[in-house]
Amino acid sequence: MRENGILASVVGLYTFNPKRRERYQKVKNLLKLAPPAHQPNQQWVADFTYLKTRERRWVYLATIMDAFSRKIVGWSISHTRDFNFTFAALKMALSRRKITQNLIFHTDQGIEYAGLNFQRALKESGLTPSMSGKGRCLDNPTAESFFHTFKTESFYQKVFDNIKQIRREFVLYIDFYNKQRLHSSIGYLSPEDYETANV
Hints:
The chain has 7 helices and 5 strands, in the order H-E-E-E-H-E-H-H-E-H-H-H. The protein is an alpha/beta fold. Strands 3-2-1-4-5 form a 5-stranded mixed sheet. The longest helix has 17 residues, at 163-179. The protein is globular and about 40 Å long.
């Protein structure tokens, strides 16, 4: 692209830092090997995306989705991408769901998830980490699909001045998404209705 004068829209979001490698922990893609979830709290998939305010300031949205029902069980919104950002979403999910079985927690290999602090938090919570292959966003399609849906149905429909407005909008949207939005992949039910019908 560079030869043709085309620059990616995310230029400047990442800064290479070789020292970061010391804090990484690589994990196998267990989700790829596992059968599809047949009840809640067997497989969670986590990811984050970039949003921008009218002031052109970056805001980051992290979510945790139950792969069985497509329900968003935890989320976090922040101006910074660090352990506290992704851990806040994890804390929310753990406070809302009762884990009574082995649970696969699947992410990409970003430092926000692969960092030793986050991996330690997963293990201390009794969750089994799983990671996509390097640079393989298609290994986590349900999370990617949710972000596309949220941006299309909500975020791109309005202009947001600051992070507070984005957070307020997401609270409203996630209530609609979990309770009312129908999904073809779960029999045209909402995530909450699907869980109720199958538990």
